[in-house]
Write a structure and sequence with these properties.
With about 180 residues, the protein is of the alpha+beta class. The protein has one domain: Aminopeptidase, CATH 3.40.630. It has five helices and eight strands; from the N terminus they run βαααβββαβαβββ. The protein has helices at about 20-35, 40-50, 55-60, 120-135, 150-155, and strands at about 10-15, 65, 75-80, 105-115, 140-145, 160, 165-170, 170-180. Strands 1, 2, 3, 4, 5, 6, 7 and 8 form an eight-stranded mixed sheet that branches. Helix 1 (about 20-35) runs antiparallel to helix 2 (about 40-50). The protein is globular. It starts with 9 loop residues before the first strand and ends with a strand.
């Protein structure tokens, strides 16, 4: 895949039928792109207990897929108008309630890039699409829970980090970083 291919990105809503393919991207991304940030045990615990597609976002039309011009899925991620900050369907700490754009931050959720497309603008294009959609829905700020490998990416895109948290993932502590961003007025 050449860098020129990355200029021909297509971003579209995820379809329920492709959730298994997106889960495969998430797992591969976590296992390969988390090396050096998480131990293998931490990565596997996060895959088993937190990482994954939130089917509510797919139903809402706010979980997106990035493809190249050949239809190759390069990444996935979304934004949410719901209270859940992070975690796929298997994460127990989900809250379905709707947010109020006048007082709440939209959530940036479940960003994963296929390893073969990493560091080629896929995540940046996806983040821009999500922030633009959240702003169009009336939100003035966003928040997210970053993985350790994701933290530098989000910081480079204007997100401010807070104190890291350790989440118990089936008896394995996995570190995440809450982050937030205010949209320009």
């Amino acid at each position: 895949m050449s860098l020129a291919t990355m200029t021909n990105l297509r971003i579209r809503p995820a379809l329920p039928a492709e959730i298994p393919a997106l889960e495969a991207i998430i797992t591969a991304s976590a296992r390969i792109l988390s090396k050096g940030f998480y131990t293998p045990a931490e990565t596997e615990a996060a895959i088993a207990h937190v990482f994954g597609v939130d089917s509510e976002l797919v139903a809402d039309g706010t979980y997106l897929v990035v493809e190249d011009d050949t239809g190759d899925r390069l990444g996935c991620g979304g934004w949410s108008k719901r209270a859940t900050l992070f975690g796929g369907d298997k994460f127990a700490g989900r809250e379905s309630g709707l947010l109020d754009p006048a007082r709440d931050a939209a959530k940036i959720r479940a960003f994963f890039v296929a390893p073969h497309a990493a560091r080629r603008g896929v995540g940046a294009a996806l983040l821009k699409a999500c922030e633009d959609a959240a702003a169009a829905a009336g939100f003035t700020r966003t928040e997210l829970m970053a993985t350790l490998p994701g933290e530098p990416f989000y910081a480079a895109h204007g997100y401010a980090g807070q104190a890291p948290i350790d989440l118990d993932c089936g008896g394995v502590a996995v570190r995440f970083v809450p982050m937030a961003k205010q949209f320009p007025a």
